Amino acid sequence: MREYNVRNIIILTILVCYLPLLYAEDKRAIPLDMYLIMDNSSFFQDAKTDAVAWFGTQVVDRVFAEGDKVTIWAAGNSAEIVYSDEISNTDSKIAIKDKLTSLPTDNKTADFSDALKDLQTRLSGASPGRLPYTMLVTASAGSLGNALTGSTQTMLKWFRTEKYERWQAFILGPDIGGKVSQAAQNYMNSQK
What is the model's pLDDT at position 154? Predict the structure, then answer.
């Protein structure tokens, strides 16, 4: 009987100590600069609701924190910034979701090239104390043709894809090439 009580006390102690950690919020020390390029061509029409819902729950609700900056491009016949602001409270998150929900999907093409050129300029002037995060959301990989063959093709060199039934998100690492080379060089130098 005594052994049973000791085991229960140990289990209870572990739960009391570690249970709060399971429900703790992620506290990021570095503010995030989120760059989202959203397809708003007619190809995206059937996928938009699912993509916006995913972005709302997986990124806006779970990742964004006060002080983060968000810039959203609508990539249609031409690319244009449709939202750019800093997260200051819950209303900021609602405004982002509303903006994405209200984006039209009636353009014939998706101009990702101009959005990527603007992104390149913004990244070159970005504050070093912030974490840049870039995502391109589309329903048609074919619409990336101009971006893959033009001056912005290096922006798409490093990426990870989140594929869903009717759309996909490309998480870009446009400035990661130099960092990878430097890390490899540092590693090689440490082996001498």
Answer: 57
